[in-house]
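Re: duplicated header lines in exported structure tokens

Our pipeline writes sequence and tokens for each protein into one text file. With two proteins the header for the second block appears twice in some exports. Here is an export where it did not happen, for reference. First protein block:
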Amino acid sequence: MESVKKEIKRAEKFANLAHAGQKRKITGEPYITHPAAVARLLTKYGFNKYQIAAAWLHDTVEDTKTKTKTIRTNFDKRTARYVAIATRPKGTDSWKKGRRYTIKVVKRAKNFDDIAVIIADKIVNVEDITRNLRKQGMSLFDKFFDGKYRRQLWYYEAVLKAIHKRDKNRPIVLIGSKKYPHSLPNSSQT
């Protein structure tokens, strides 16, 4: 049990340091609230310590100066593997290329556990967008997505279709359905 807490705590500490000073673009909250929400969701649905640790780390390679090698050196190889799966490789820097890459990863993953971090990340992102749409209306898309709500919609629908083709009966995939109507707590509860 101690090793479980240790890997997750190290990942949480690492992510806090890596994302220090960063803010969420929509809310202005500390960025760390996002990986914390992804980790909470995976914890809630009983995913393993490596996936939960990877949830804390999933944006460090893309959004900070952290290198993939640093993750591989400092964390268990399983944690590093889940982070690598959730990280868009160099060369997918354009919005569309990056999103197409993620959709392809979800479609081609050998098992559901490999993409759990990606799925939880997308659920948290959709929750955040939905919560902020209620507050700001469609102007949210003008401010933060260059008015291109249709491409955001395309992306999340494509990910959802890919997930549902794989395994539509897992509780984490059913969030928001009649069977699992409750989703994440507000990110302010972090």
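Second protein block, exported in the same file:
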Amino acid sequence: MNARLRFFGFFLLLAFAAVEGWSQEPVTAIKAGRLIDVRTGQVLTGQTIIIKGERIVAVGADLRIEPGATVIDLTNATVLPALVGESARETLEYVKWGMTPIQAIQTRTLRAAEQMGWSDRVGTLEPGKFADIIAVEIDPNRDIRGLEYPKFMMKRGQVVAAAPLKEPVSVKGGAPPPLRFEEVEVFADKGWPRSILTRLVKQYGVNFVPTPEQMARLRQAGADDELLSLLVSVKPIVQVSQLSLVTQPGGVQAYVGDTFRGITSEQQGNLNIENLTPGSHQLRLTLPGYKEWNQQVTLPAGETLPVSAKLEPAGPKPLAFEEVEEALRNGISNKRVGELVKQFGVNFSMTAEREQRLRGAGADGELLYLVTQSKK
């Protein structure tokens, strides 16, 4: 009987031990060379983050690491809270618009979590928060581009990446374009300080005249009377746009609306069309012997829109006199027009008047002779 009780007691002891072991959450310690405290904006050195399960339990210097904990060495990196919401590229844009790197990081961590109602879970590296952590090799307080390629990522205590995720993305130089209404509304809604918004409007201008509806939306987003008065008084800046055109074949005539804007190069088919008004335009491409190509394009303000077009042959239809004349007047070379005449022929006979008009358009003697011999 005593032996049976001893055996049963030993069995219960093993069971309790197993349950106790299963109930323990794994402990991880991250040793950070630099740690960004997004509440104060300070960069702290020699910090340790203790994580139990999916949450942070302690942050500080010289913390005791219990035996059996997993230790992650990030002493050569900067550790900060994972960004909330958008990608790192938007954080780069905040810096281009005038924020300091630490202000941009605070906007995307602490402030974003507060606005989403998640401040009890994410946004800072503090006890009780989820262990959503990233680390970069350079100090993002000095170079914000480090956020583009973190070397380490943790989501709720689980390591999800421990190598560079992408190559650094270059930041375009030059002054940003004028502010759009949607940008001003988003910045105001995100709680950007009025001083920063005012400076951005004065420095870069806007590309809109606020309507009563837009004024109401901005006020609802948090804009005050001073900012609204500034927006009303600022003269909008309308930026020009460009088209970067590539055609097959080359030597194609390009029209924007009814205006001739140039010919694509004969070899590569390239043409850059500058000084276009932003908005919607009809792009028309023509070449004798080919079907006309038409497309409605929308040009973003201050940007270059790439367009590729492949023209289809029109079939064995001979060229009309007007097609040959237009091609020459638009600057297509005699050699190229001659090739098209040889390929498709012409549907007209040469007269003295037509010869004079073609000479006036730039035809040389060799092309005129070829035209006279190519009527079909």
